[in-house]
Amino acid sequence: MASVKLTKVKKVYDNKVVAVHDFDLDIKDKEFVVFVGPSGCGKSTTLRMVAGLEEISDGTIEIDGEVVNDLQPKDRGIAMVFQNYALYPHMTVYDNIAFSLRLQKMPEDQIYERVTNAAEILGITDYLMRKPRALSGGQRQRVAIGRAMVRESKVFLMDEPLSNLDAKLRNQMRAEIILLRQKLNTTFIYVTHDQTEAMTLGDRIVIMKDGYIMQVGTPTEVFERPANLFVAEFIGAPKMNIMKTELLKENGKYYVKPFGVKLPVDGEKGELLAKKNVPAGEILLGARPEHIRLAKPGETSIPVTLEVNEMMGSELHLHVYTEDGTRLIVRVPTIDLTAAERENLVQGHKLNITFEGKVMHFFDEENQTNLIY
Ligand SMILES: Nc1ncnc2c1ncn2[C@@H]1O[C@H](COP(=O)(O)OP(=O)(O)O)[C@@H](O)[C@H]1O
Ligand SMILES: [Mg+2]
């Protein structure tokens, strides 16, 4: 059992900078929770308060139901992996991993058991006698994780552990963290500024901005039902297109009118607008790049001009602008286009696009909250 509960946790630095405001979160035993948000939003501060490396200005933190506000880091049953995993350069990998256990005066046969077991899980058995300088970045990061693993903690805290790795290695290590999590079967709190990492790793994601929680939810929830404009634009790449648009209500049915073109709001989205009785008026309309498509001949559509065509392999990212100069990004699966159609997609080419009504998002212009969730 290792639940973590934060209640009205606050951090004020130097009596003036409020880094974290009234942070409330209930993390279940064995849950993998990711804190994500732009640099400076308070992710590390919150994690460090859980670890006991940073004093709490107000509120309580409980681990397993026990208030730990006044407990030393070593007494909290946590292990932590940082972005800058300083390994001891003069020690072998084995000794690096064994270091904290030796400090605890654990018998050597027991240390051997734990170190070799961790090395096995992490795939670094062959490197145990090497010094850190003879390892790649990814291997060093595994040693740093091994060092935290052998302490058999109740909660595993990771602060941007992959940020120092190159893109390819980061993808590989991300998959390894998923496997590690299955093997360790413990509670994780993972900090990252990378929405892809958050989406792929988290059971639940906590999206933060300026020290406030913007939304807590599963990857599917935050992607499909973003609570506000900030979450909508932060989650998903390329980011959601946002347009100032009129919302119309006629005979109980809703329509939007982006760039003067009237499109029906279909399916569940239309029903939710009706159920909430959202009034007609100016709104911010959100459409993800994959939810805008090239219109078929004769279909009601919006004329645009192509500015940049990014060939991503399996898909194209078309940067287009409308007649009033609004820039949009449209994602088109490469497989949907003939070779001739692809040849045509050069700068200045005229296209017609349309939005899928059943996957539109609607935000209040003033307070930027989602109008239907
Ligand atoms: N030791 C410190 N003293 C003063 N301000 C700090 C300190 N550490 C962080 N901050 C401030 O607190 C805010 C949150 O920082 P941090 O938790 O490191 O953000 P993140 O990890 O999300 O990038 C920032 O405005 C940062 O400048
Ligand atoms: Mg940080």
How is this fold's topology laid out?
Elements: E1 4-13, E2 17-27, E3 32-36, H1 43-51, E4 58-63, E5 66-67, E6 78-81, H2 93-103, H3 108-122, H4 137-149, E7 155-159, H5 167-184, E8 187-192, H6 195-201, E9 204-209, E10 212-217, H7 219-224, H8 229-234, E11 241-250, E12 253-256, E13 263-264, H9 267-275, E14 281-287, E15 292-294, E16 302-311, E17 315-322, E18 327-333, H10 339-344, E19 350-355, E20 361-363
Parallel strand pairs: 3-8, 3-9, 6-7, 7-8
Antiparallel strand pairs: 1-2, 1-4, 4-5, 9-10, 11-12, 11-14, 12-13, 14-20, 15-19, 16-17, 16-19, 17-18
Bound molecules: adenosine-5'-diphosphate and magnesium ion.
Magnesium ion (MG) binds at residues 43-44.
Keywords:
six-stranded mixed beta sheet, alpha+beta, single chain, binds adenosine-5'-diphosphate, Rossmann fold, 10 helices, about 375 residues, binds magnesium ion, 2 domains, OB fold (Dihydrolipoamide Acetyltransferase, E2P), five-stranded antiparallel beta sheet
Report on the architecture of this protein.
This protein folds into two domains: 4-233, 3-Layer(aba) Sandwich (Rossmann fold), CATH 3.40.50.300; 241-363, Nucleic acid-binding proteins (OB fold (Dihydrolipoamide Acetyltransferase, E2P), Beta Barrel). Helix 2 crosses helix 3 (108-122) and helix 3 packs across helix 4. The chain has helices at 43-51, 93-103, 108-122, 137-149, 167-184, 195-201, 219-224, 229-234, 267-275, 339-344, and strands at residues 4-13, 17-27, 32-36, 58-63, 66-67, 78-81, 155-159, 187-192, 204-209, 212-217, 241-250, 253-256, 263-264, 281-287, 292-294, 302-311, 315-322, 327-333, 350-355, 361-363. With 373 residues, it is α+β, with helices and mostly antiparallel strands. The strands form four sheets. The protein has a six-stranded mixed beta sheet, sandwiched between helices. Strands 13-12-11-14-20 form a five-stranded antiparallel beta sheet. It has a five-stranded antiparallel beta sheet with strand order 15-19-16-17-18, with no helix packed on it. The chain contains ten helices and 20 strands. Magnesium ion binds at residues 43-44.
